[in-house]
Automatic annotation (TrEMBL):
This is Phospholipase. GO terms for molecular function: phospholipase A2 activity. Gene3D superfamilies: Phospholipase A2 domain. The lineage of its organism: Bacteria, Thermotogati, Deinococcota, Deinococci, Deinococcales. It comes from Deinococcus indicus. Residues 1-22 form the signal peptide.
Length: 211
């Protein structure tokens, strides 16, 4: 069979075309998200207008839409050694204040109003405050996460008041709110995630006075 020889210039163009890959699609902007049907409620529109192309908000919305993996890992907390009251109490505070809503609820039910499992723990809580009027419809949804956050703040400011502990408490708060959002229908999750970010930003910016 007669072989076919491509001219050198044509061969180079052919190889170049074969080696090209499709350009990656651009990351959605706040304007793109604001046009999506799941985010047409007044709360979501106000949050998108307030934070615009804030990288944290955009990352949160990418999680909500499944465009990136959802990050629901809570911070690591120290183990309770059973050897020293002060260190064990601090470890307990972190494990409870940085843990899941379910774990906190169990501890609260067992120990609120007692001196157990350690003396000097503050179990008081006052629910959620909506950040500058944003996300008003989510105060009750997020109340369980706010309760955990209250426990972390009110005890860590007594037993180990550091900026790092406040930041970790806020990150656990954000994760617990996202876990609450995940229990909603897929259509309601993006709006819930945007509200969770607004609540998270509120404690990051204005929470130092309470810690």
């Amino acid at each position: 069979m007669r072989s076919l020889m491509l001219p050198a210039a044509l061969l180079s163009l052919t190889l170049a075309a074969c080696s090209q890959t499709a350009a990656p699609t651009g990351t959605p902007s706040a304007r793109d998200y604001a046009a999506r049907p799941e985010l047409q409620d007044p709360d979501s529109q106000a949050i998108l207008a307030r934070y615009g192309n804030d990288p944290g908000l955009l990352a949160t919305l990418r999680e909500a839409y499944g465009e990136t993996p959802r990050i629901l890992t809570l911070p690591a907390a120290p183990t309770i050694s059973g050897q020293d009251l002060s260190s064990d109490r601090l470890a307990y505070v972190k494990r409870t204040g940085w843990g899941t809503v379910g774990n906190y609820n169990g501890q609260y039910a067992a120990y609120n109003g007692t001196s157990l499992p350690y003396p000097g723990l503050d179990w008081t809580r006052d629910g959620c405050s909506a950040p500058d009027g944003l996300g008003l419809g989510y105060r009750e949804d997020f109340r369980p996460a706010c309760n955990v956050h209250d426990f972390a703040y009110r005890n860590l400011k007594v037993y180990q008041r550091t900026d790092a502990n406040r930041k970790t408490s806020d990150e656990a708060f954000h994760t617990n709110m996202k876990a609450i959002c995940n229990a909603k229908s897929w259509y309601k999750q993006p709006a819930c995630y945007s509200a969770a970010y607004a609540y998270y930003q509120a404690v990051r910016i204005g929470g130092s006075d309470s810690f």
